[in-house]
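Recall that a protein's primary structure is simply its ordered list of amino acids. Everything else, from secondary elements to tertiary packing, is in principle encoded there. The following example makes that idea concrete.
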Amino acid sequence: MKEIYDLFKNIYLWAAAGSWLTAQSVKLILTFFKSKKWEFTLYASTGGMPSAHTATVTGLAIAVGRCEGFSSSQFAIAFILAIVVITDALHLRREVGRHAQALQEITKKKFNTLSGHKVSEIIVGLLIGTLVGWIL
C-alpha cells in the first residue's frame, strides 16, 4: 500500500501527466472555438496544436532539473529523452502524416493524417511543459 501512496507523491509523474493533460485540454478548447462542439476524443488523439508529446517530456525534464539539479544525471537522461521524443514528433511523425495523406488520396480510405507536428505546435508544447514542470 505504501508503494501506491509513494507513486501518487511522485512529482515527476505529476509534472509529466499535468503537462500532457494541459496540452490536450488546450487542444480541446482550441477545437471547440473552431467547430463549436466539444470533441473529448481529442484526449486520445495525436498531432495538432499543441504537441502533448513535447509538453509531457518537457514537463518531466524541467521538474527533474528543478528538483535534482540541472547538472544531475537524472536531468541528463530526461533531457535526452525529451530531445528524442521532440525530434520524432517533429520529423518522423510528420512524415507518417504525409504518407497517410498520400495513401488516403490513392486508396480513398480514411487514415489519421494528423500524426506529426509543425514547429509552432512543438514550441507551444515546450512552453506548456516548461510552465507546468516548473510550477509543480
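The chain has a mean pLDDT of 90. Residues 97 and 113 are 4 Å apart (CA to CA).
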